[in-house]
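Lab notebook: predicted structure, single chain.

Context: the supervisor wants predicted structures on file for every construct in the current expression panel, including those that have not yet been purified. This is the next one on the list. No modifications to the sequence; it matches the entry in the shared construct table.
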Amino acid sequence: MIRQETFLKQKGLVSMATVRDIARAAGVSPATVSRVLNGHPHVAEELRERVTRVAGELGYTGAARRRARTGTGVVALIVPHVSSPFYCEVLAGVEREAYQNEYGLVFYTTDGRSHDNVIERALETPQLAGLVVITPRWREDEQLLDHPEAPPVVVVDHRNAGSPYPHVVVDNLRGAYRAAQYLLAKGYDDIAMIRGPENIQSSMDRVRGFMLAMHEAFAAGLARARDLSDRIWPGDFEQRSGYEAVAGRLAAGEPMPRAIFCANDLMALGAVAALHEAGLRVPDDVAVMGFDDLPLAAAAVPPLTTVRQPVAEMGAIAFRMVTRLAAGQTLETERIVLDTELVVRRSA
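Prediction complete. Output recorded below exactly as produced.
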């Protein structure tokens, strides 16, 4: 099988010399080559002269990079891992737009890898027009920003406060607020929540929305007055954490609340599994509600009541934003917030 880079070279779509070729010949890292070729000031003069000389000898012109800036080329998607249905839905949205607009698409995962190496490899993608990134950590954002050859970047969902990048997100606070209001309206006066990671903004916004609705209910006498800290259980957005949050309390003999709101569908499915394993019925004994409305939510037993966020559309919008930036256009707004929708099924 011909490697992608070799194929593109044969078709004349990229310069015959790449940044990696120059780095190998000059005995430096690809990142150093990128800094030299883009005029970065913090490079030793000896290294600058060596890289420039080798680039000239190899016939490097940077044509691929210039073509990418005209609005055609390849978009790279960087995700934490591919085992999450959420990330796969984002990928589906990006892929659909890329296909319709005749862009190439590559994706990289950061799970168990050096983020420096993943970003470096992504930046070496021939004709790279831009990056769509799902990342919960501010450190990775800073690393992207530090690369002098970084193309436009758009962040999907897990955008942290202070991030300099345009982003697409849903109104997580309002979605969780509506979820808690729905459960309260159904008569559940004792509700717990399984939250996601504390270092992810969308996760904490869902906690804030839940707490806002619950405090309003306490004031109105619609819920049992209690310290909410013992009704917000830790989770990490993975199915296993939802299972363990419930199974651990059942094993310790703790009473279950009348309803559990989970910060995503995967944890909700884990919670349902733990309840079933203990002989408890959903929703008769304990109601369970999720957040996402991934395709597997409707197929759950019982089908999962949840908060729908337009995941594939988030990916599609991020693609359109990054390619507009790659073409030198400006964005009307750098922050797009999409609404959520309550989806009522049989689990709550």
